[in-house]
């Protein structure tokens, strides 16, 4: 009988741990059920296809942001990178008539270089990446506007449509690319030394340095990877919209950051998974889709997104505080 309170306490602890661990998945399930009742169009195959294709672009960029965040950094410039790279790609295709086989690799290389600049500045100036990438975001966006010269750039080869508008086995090509990138990212994080170094860097940078990790090189590599992935998104978005515009990609970093926090990727680094990230992206996608079906005005959608971001940040902080308290409680008292 004396063991019963201890058993119940242990059971409550395990249930609480599972609820915190799978909170994003539970939120997603509740939203799916709720909006299914509120709108008969929501759970249709047609709408689900649209929803997944809509989130695929942000999901791809979010993978790059995830690597940087797990390492303890952040990149707020990816939207501006997309603005710049999609305009340059547009000019190469429409005006310079550069073949796709050359234009796309050049765009990917350009995105990688922009990421390298972010990483290089963060280690040389020794300033938090949040400040660095806020600054470079303004620079990249400004360069995009300068190059675009207030034009909507059109006149691409019709074969370019396949990347953003095509289907592979009845699955939208962006969704296929999203799945491939997510699987590769999951393998890297969970099955390679590089992935372990990413987590080590975010968990304790000094300990990672003492363990032999080249911290500076890792940071530059991760920002370069983020830039490369944002360039993939740029290619897909341009192919989808089929017009070079400075509005393309703007604000995508907001969805990526919110999704990452909702999916359990800590703002302070050292924690996260691709599965959690994709759950967070789907939560954002479901909210966006449901608000569009309900004909919410844009400003109302912004209010909801802002509230969700604040809730995600608060939940992340709660998780950190609770974990710290549990760790302290497990330490035996000396005396």
How is the secondary structure organized here?
Layout: H1 3-21, H2 23-38, H3 45-70, H4 78-94, H5 100-124, H6 129-148, H7 161-165, E1 167-168, E2 171-172, H8 173-191, H9 193-203, H10 205-210, H11 215-241, H12 252-262, H13 274-293, H14 298-330
Helix pairs in contact: 2-13, 3-8, 3-9, 3-11, 3-12, 3-13, 4-5, 4-6, 4-11, 5-6, 5-11, 8-9, 12-13, 12-14
Structure write-up:
The chain has 335 residues and is mainly α. It has a single domain (24-315), classed as Orthogonal Bundle (ABC transporter involved in vitamin B12 uptake, BtuC). 76% of the residues lie in helices and 1% in strands. The protein is built from 14 helices and two strands; from the N terminus they run αααααααββααααααα. It has helices spanning 3-21, 23-38, 45-70, 78-94, 100-124, 129-148, 161-165, 173-191, 193-203, 205-210, 215-241, 252-262, 274-293, 298-330, and strands spanning 167-168, 171-172. It has a two-stranded antiparallel ribbon with strand order 1-2. Strand 1 and strand 2 (171-172) form a beta hairpin. Helix 4 (78-94) packs across helix 11 and helix 5 packs antiparallel against helix 6. The longest helix has 33 residues, at 298-330. The radius of gyration is 22 Å and the shape is globular. The chain starts with a helix and ends in a 5-residue tail after the last helix. The mean pLDDT is 88.
Supply database-style keywords.
335 residues, 1% strand, 76% helix, ABC transporter involved in vitamin B12 uptake, BtuC, two-stranded antiparallel ribbon, 2 strands, mainly alpha
């Amino acid at each position: 009988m004396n063991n019963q309170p201890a058993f119940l306490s242990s059971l409550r602890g395990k249930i609480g741990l599972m609820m915190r661990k799978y909170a994003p998945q539970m939120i997603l399930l509740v939203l799916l059920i709720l909006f299914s009742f509120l709108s008969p169009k929501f759970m249709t195959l047609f709408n689900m296809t649209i929803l997944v294709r809509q989130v695929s672009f942000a999901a791809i960029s979010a993978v790059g942001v995830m690597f940087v965040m797990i390492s303890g950094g952040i990149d707020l410039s990816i939207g501006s990178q997309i603005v710049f790279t999609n305009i340059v790609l547009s000019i190469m295709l429409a005006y310079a008539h550069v073949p796709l086989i050359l234009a796309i690799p050049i765009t990917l290389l350009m995105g990688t270089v922009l990421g390298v600049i972010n990483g290089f500045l963060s280690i040389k100036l020794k300033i938090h990446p949040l400040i660095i990438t806020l600054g470079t975001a303004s620079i990249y966006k400004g360069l995009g506007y300068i190059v675009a010269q207030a034009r909507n750039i059109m006149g691409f080869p019709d074969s370019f449509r396949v990347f953003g508008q095509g289907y592979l086995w009845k699955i939208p090509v962006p969704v296929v690319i999203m799945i491939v990138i997510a699987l590769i990212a999951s393998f890297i994080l969970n099955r390679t030394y590089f992935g372990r170094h990413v987590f080590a860097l975010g968990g304790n940078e000094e300990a990672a340095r003492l363990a032999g990790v080249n911290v500076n090189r890792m940071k530059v590599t991760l920002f370069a990877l983020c830039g490369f992935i944002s360039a993939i998104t740029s290619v897909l978005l341009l192919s989808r919209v089929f017009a070079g515009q400075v509005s393309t990609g703007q604000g995508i970093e907001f969805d990526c950051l919110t999704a990452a926090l909702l999916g359990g990727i800590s703002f302070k680094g050292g924690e996260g998974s691709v599965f959690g990230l994709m759950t967070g992206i789907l939560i954002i996608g479901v909210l966006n889709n449901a608000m569009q079906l309900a004909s919410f005005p844009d400003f109302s959608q912004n209010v909801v997104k802002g509230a969700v971001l604040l809730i995600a940040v608060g939940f992340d902080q709660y998780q950190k505080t609770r974990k710290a308290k549990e760790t302290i409680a497990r330490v035996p008292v000396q005396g």
